[in-house]
Amino acid sequence: MLPFVEDTIVAISTPPGIGGLAVVRISGPLALETINQYFTSTQKLKPRYATFGKLKHATLGEGEFDDCVVTYFKGPRSVTGEDLVEVSIHGGAYLQQKLLEVLLRAPGIRAASAGEFTFRSFLSGRIDLSRAEAVADLIHAKDEAAHKNARNQLFGNLRLLVDSMSEKLIHSLTILEAELDFSDQEIEFSPPQALIDPLSEIHETTKALLETYFYGRRLEDGIRIPLVGAPNSGKSSLFNLLLGEERAIVTAQAGTTRDTIEKTIVIAGHSIVLVDTAGLRDAQGEAELSGVDRSLDEIDSADLVILVHAPDTETSIPEELIHTPQVVVFNKIDLVSERPENMDAYLSCTTGQGLESLKTALYAQVVNMVNMGVGGVVLNSERHRDVFIRFKDQVTASIESIQNELGPEYIASDMRLALDILGEITGKTTPDDILNQIFSGFCVGK
Ligand SMILES: Nc1nc2c(ncn2[C@@H]2O[C@H](COP(=O)(O)OP(=O)(O)OP(=O)(O)O)[C@@H](O)[C@H]2O)c(=O)[nH]1
Ligand SMILES: [Mg+2]
After folding, report:
1. Which CATH superfamily is domain 221-370 in?
2. How many Å lie between the centroid of ligand 1 and the Cα of residue 324?
3. Do domains 8-128 and 135-212+377-427 have the same CATH topology?
4. Staple 85 to which of 31, 161, 350, 417, CB 3.0 to 4.6 Å?
5. Candidates 3.30.1300.10, 2.30.30.40, 1.10.287.470, 3.30.1360.120; correct CATH number of 8-128?
């Protein structure tokens, strides 16, 4: 069951902690009345004004409780669409908890559940579902790219794309409905191709959009780049060099790295998970064997591989590598005067020479990998992906109905179904249990 929306809710919208400021939000019909019982100031609260004053009330203890700034938004001109009060107080853990506790004892007030403020925004029509989800993404964004994607979605790019596909569908449906209305009269049917063309376009767009999901996941989890090569080629040395710290053990003995080690760095605004792996060779002993197995697993799940060659080692390239994009590096250039051709970068981990050219090669590949989006949209939510997969299938079904010359009523019903599925993105047709699941994934106070 979705929460009942007539009541007034309260929550701390900044995580409890010491220092800085904390914001307590109250939303609902009793918001203003409630805060007025605790807030004293020389000025009355006015909509869209921030007012400085004190919190003072017997239940908050003797004397003044804290200085505060109260900002009042009168519904419906607030993010939740209802009366909303935001109280900024000092960020002390005691202050936050005490104020919340006292407000919760006020009549008609209850604690907000996770995501309930955003949920109210959605219910009041202030934002559609895809934008509500973008709020959650924005809060969790770990790097610039994830942040940019969430902002794009928040600005409604996904919504625009969905709207333009809906409009095309509705236009075709209108033609079909007209044919249905006049089906007993001698009216020319619109040629099937005129119906198929917009559907094919929608199909193509959806397909392209689904392909962005791979990168969308990478936005969340980071682009996975293992360092792969023969034992002793210098993988761990390069790992440390790229991280700028002595994280992995480096020794002159081949077979030093056994277990994989990973660490996230940010390159060109994108999170990258660098993974140091065990050198690939016929392993000696059980531990090294498991290490090599792990290396192969890493290659399997890699987005890009840094393949390290060195003059004093021989790399046997495993089959798993054939289909993986790679940056090929020749390491230990300080040891030789001649270099093999066709490498992406020539490097010495010992002197640091060539590190910049390796980074350039790496950036180029990363940027190449991430520059895909449809109309500024990159899918990163499993829910959106599921909806678009079903939508694409339904568009295919509609095209087939036209090709098989089914009656306009069947075609129209297929297309209406497609439109309904698409509506799940913006929340027009999203079932309640899914809505609950989405909003409960938010933090309390958002
Ligand atoms: N001269 C020279 N030695 C290097 C360079 N890079 C690494 N080494 C040395 O090569 C040896 C092996 O380096 P590691 O980084 O441990 O090699 P690895 O590929 O991680 O080896 P395994 O973990 O055994 O697979 C160490 O003695 C390093 O100091 C380089 O650019 N020049
Ligand atoms: Mg190593």
Report:
1. P-loop containing nucleotide triphosphate hydrolases (3.40.50.300)
2. 24
3. no
4. 31
5. 3.30.1360.120
Atom of ligand 1 nearest to the CA of 229: 19
C-alpha–C-alpha distance, residues 371 and 194, integer Å: 33
Nearest Cα residue to atom 13 of ligand 1: 234
Q: What is the pTM of this model?
A: 0.61
Q: With the C-alpha atoms ordered 382, 383, 385, 389, is the resulting torsion angle positive or negative? A: positive
Q: Is the dihedral of CA 251, 253, 257, 262 positive or negative?
A: positive
Ligand 1 neighbourhood includes 361 CB (under 6 angstroms) = no
Q: What is the C-alpha separation between 247 and 240, in angstroms, rounded?
A: 6
Q: Is 189 helix (H, G, I), strand (E, B) or coil?
A: coil
Say what the pLDDT of residue 4 is: 46
Cα of 256 vs centre of ligand 1, distance in Å, is: 10
Could you tell me the residue ranges of all domains in the chain? 8-128, 135-212+377-427, 221-370
Q: How far apart are CA 123 and CA 31, in angstroms?
A: 18
DSSP-assigned beta bridge partners for residue 264: 273
Residues 276-300 pLDDT 10s: 999 888 777 788 788 888 888 888 8
Distance 233 CA to ligand 1 centre (A): 5
The residue whose CA is least distant from atom 26 of ligand 1 is 252
- Residue 271, pLDDT > 70, answer yes
Q: Is the CB of 231 under 6 A from ligand 1?
A: yes
Q: Is the CB of 250 under 6 A from ligand 1?
A: yes
Cβ neighbors of 188 (< 8 A, separation 6 or more) are: none
Residues that place a CB less than 5 A from ion ligand 2: 235-236, 256-257
Going by alpha carbons, the residue nearest to atom 21 of ligand 1 is 232
Weakest-pLDDT range from 300-314, 337-351, 431-445: 431-445
Q: What is the pLDDT of residues 7-54, one digit of tens each?
A: 888 888 776 555 688 899 999 999 999 999 999 999 999 999 999 999
CA 360 to ligand 2 centroid distance, Å: 23
- Classify residue 84 as left (phi > 0), alpha (psi -120 to 50) or beta: beta
- Going by C-alpha positions, the residue among 172, 164, 205 that lies closest to residue 191 is 172
Rounded to the nearest whole angstrom, what is the distance from the C-alpha of residue 236 to the centroid of ligand 1?
7
310 within ligand 1 shell (Cβ under 6 A): no
* CATH for the stretch 135-212+377-427: 1.20.120.430
H/E element, 270: strand 270-276
CA contacts within 13 A on the Cβ side of 69: 10
